[in-house]
Specification:
Layout: E1 15-19, H1 35-43, H2 51-65, E2 69-73, H3 83-92, E3 97-102, H4 107-117, E4 121-125, H5 131-138, H6 143-156, E5 159-166, H7 175-185, E6 188-193, H8 211-219, E7 224-226, E8 236-240, E9 245-249, E10 262-265, E11 270-272, E12 281-282, H9 289-300, H10 315-318
Parallel strand pairs: 1-2, 1-10, 2-3, 3-4, 4-5, 5-6, 6-9
Antiparallel strand pairs: 7-8, 8-9, 10-11, 11-12
The chain binds S-adenosylmethionine (SAM).
Length: 320
């Protein structure tokens, strides 16, 4: 039995987030500055690593780290060819939990197949239920298609959560409508503070609606009681008097770096130990055990002590 790789805060890697490709069919305002930046990403020759190569890299990481969760993301993971086969491959190597983060646009057709392949749960990014605001946030229509995807996922038996990035002056009027939507379907929703990443690196504070602001908006309609934050969780949860849960991912107001257990892999098979690192660590299928060990320790050393200080990388590249 090998030693667990740990840093001075006791942190290790148990969760792997894999960005399957940096292409996306949405152009969300927090990811890209506009259509031109999106086109640059989408026209870059990135079709992602093929599933066999990706599975081999993940197998090596799982062997060393005993991963508990693999989350597939991007870019948009539903654009990855052979996604169901990839999920089956992860399931057969014994990864306990396989999850995905998606914008949901292609979910209606794919939810049942992915569930059958072994996907356990999905987080759907939904920043508005009002079509005009949805278009403002994603630069695409239509919210109805995403909602059909969410319903298909629920019907297929997938566990579903919603994530909404709330930006001041953009979609802050959607907090209560999103909450009502989630409560009506019995889905947990989490609101995210906007992060200083990519094109927002230098001016995200202009759009920041803080955890306190979000709680105040929800407090206008619901009485909330805070729950204890779970170890390594990104979200803190509150519960309403009727037992409905709502979460906030407050990267700015309440950083959660101190027990972070996440390792990231981009679509070229490069590792990042921290969302704030723009020093990818290349990894191949032919890595020796000693080489892998050294690289994992270097990735762990990338973790920041206490708080995220921003990154010029877009989540489109490093994986949200
Ligand atoms: N395309 C998929 C989706 O829409 O869920 C997966 C990738 S996308 C990068 C994942 C999520 O990252 C977004 O929905 C959003 O929640 C989060 N994200 C990206 N940039 C962000 C930022 N600057 N601040 C906060 N969250 C961000």
């Amino acid at each position: 039995m090998m030693d667990v790789i740990r840093d001075q805060y006791g942190r290790t890697f148990r969760t792997l987030r894999v960005s399957l490709l940096s292409h996306c069919n949405f152009g969300c305002v927090y990811c890209v500055a506009g259509e031109e930046e999106l086109r640059e990403w989408n026209e870059a020759p990135d079709r992602g690593l093929g599933a066999p190569e990706l599975l081999e890299i993940i197998r090596r990481l799982h062997e060393r780290l005993e991963l508990e969760t693999v989350r597939l993301t991007g870019g948009e993971p539903l654009l990855y060819p052979g996604l169901a086969g990839l999920v089956e491959g992860l399931r057969s190597m014994g990864i306990p939990r396989i999850k995905m983060t998606t914008n949901g646009a292609l979910l209606e057709r794919k939810a049942a197949l992915l569930k059958q392949a072994g996907l356990e749960s999905i987080n759907v990014s939904l920043d508005a239920v009002d079509e005009a605001v949805f278009v403002r946030m994603s630069r695409r229509n239509s919210v109805a298609r995403v909602i059909r995807g969410i319903d298909a996922a629920l019907d297929a038996g997938l566990s579903v959560k919603l994530n909404a990035v709330i930006m001041k002056g953009m979609n802050d009027g959607q907090v209560l409508p999103l909450l009502e939507f989630a409560f009506t379907r019995g889905i947990t929703i989490r609101f995210l503070e906007v992060m200083a990443m990519g094109h927002l690196y230098h001016h995200s504070e202009h759009y920041l609606l803080s955890r306190q602001d979000i709680l105040q908006l929800i407090g206008e309609r619901y009485e909330l009681t805070p729950l204890e934050r779970e170890p390594a969780a990104t979200a803190q949860y509150w519960v309403t008097a009727r037992g409905q849960r709502v979460g906030i991912i407050a990267n700015e107001s309440e950083p959660f770096c101190r027990d972070c257990d996440r390792l990231r892999l981009d679509s070229s098979g490069r590792m990042y130990g921290c969302l704030s690192s723009d020093h990818p660590i290349g990894l191949g299928t032919a890595e020796t055990a000693a080489g892998l060990e050294e690289k994992l320790r270097a990735a762990l050393a990338q973790k920041q002590d206490l708080r995220f200080t921003g990154s010029e990388l877009s989540m489109l590249q490093i994986g949200g």
